[in-house]
Amino acid sequence: MVQPRNASTVVLLRPDEQGSFDILLTRRPETMRFLGGFYVFPGGTVHRDDYSAAMLRRCRRLTGAEARQILGSRHEPDEAIGHWVAVARELFEEVGILLCVTESGAAFQPIDEGTQQRVERKRQAIVKKELDFSGFLESENLYCDLSQAVYFNHWVTPDMYSMRFDTRFYAAVLPPRQIPLARSEEVTDSLWIKPGEALARMNRRDFPILPPTTTVLHEFSRFPSWEHVSREFKFNR
């Protein structure tokens, strides 16, 4: 039996003007070994660097003890924090979204073109492993706001598969004035879509999708409005 690797996945949401909400799905390149060509939520493996001393100094609003308790006391405090960091790192690597705050605690908003271009260059450097995530945050004087990612589910790949992941699922709201990349090194296409619409398209050849993504979509399709989903995940606290 293959030992599953720890991983984190995030459902990114945004409210619409009608009081409903959309979620972000990304399509993986066909060449990727795991779920190549399928639509998924952003995410990936938890790395040791996600809970290094340098990375932990760049985290706010969640302690190791709190993270460990939320995950059922299955991990040491630092490693538990790493699951949340993996959410922030993977979201940035794949679609360029940062769940971060400035040193003062204000939300990070890359509103000028110069900042956007600089951050994008550094994102590409992280993907190429020329820069690590903690080094990027330090260079921009940013901190991961771990409270923006809300844990809600846990899935383990069945033991029949040659690649297995012990995955924690999180939900987060698209930060103000940030726009996900349409494509990147790990994404051939990204789209905002309502959970029910995604489920209605799941049997189409141009929309390949599998569990647990479909299971999560079913879970979110039960929320009748943005008010209900934001109350459930305490997004407005």
Structure commentary:
This protein has 237 residues and is α+β, with helices and mostly antiparallel strands. It has a single domain, classed as Alpha-Beta Complex (Nucleoside Triphosphate Pyrophosphohydrolase), CATH 3.90.79.10. 32% of the residues lie in helices and 22% in strands. The protein has eight helices and ten strands. The protein has helices at 53-56, 64-70, 77-95, 113-127, 133-140, 195-200, 213-221, 226-232, and strands spanning 5-15, 21-27, 39-40, 43-45, 59-60, 100-102, 142-145, 150-156, 165-173, 189-193. Strands 1, 2, 3, 4, 8, 9 and 10 form a seven-stranded mixed sheet that branches. It has a three-stranded mixed sheet with strand order 5-7-6. Helix 2 (64-70) crosses helix 3 (77-95). The protein is globular, with a radius of gyration of 17 Å. The mean pLDDT is 95.
At a glance:
With 237 residues, this protein is of the alpha+beta class. It has one domain: Nucleoside Triphosphate Pyrophosphohydrolase (Alpha-Beta Complex), CATH 3.90.79.10. It has helices spanning 53-56, 64-70, 77-95, 113-127, 133-140, 195-200, 213-221, 226-232, and strands spanning 5-15, 21-27, 39-40, 43-45, 59-60, 100-102, 142-145, 150-156, 165-173, 189-193.
What secondary-structure arrangement, pairings included, does this model have?
Elements: E1 5-15, E2 21-27, E3 39-40, E4 43-45, H1 53-56, E5 59-60, H2 64-70, H3 77-95, E6 100-102, H4 113-127, H5 133-140, E7 142-145, E8 150-156, E9 165-173, E10 189-193, H6 195-200, H7 213-221, H8 226-232
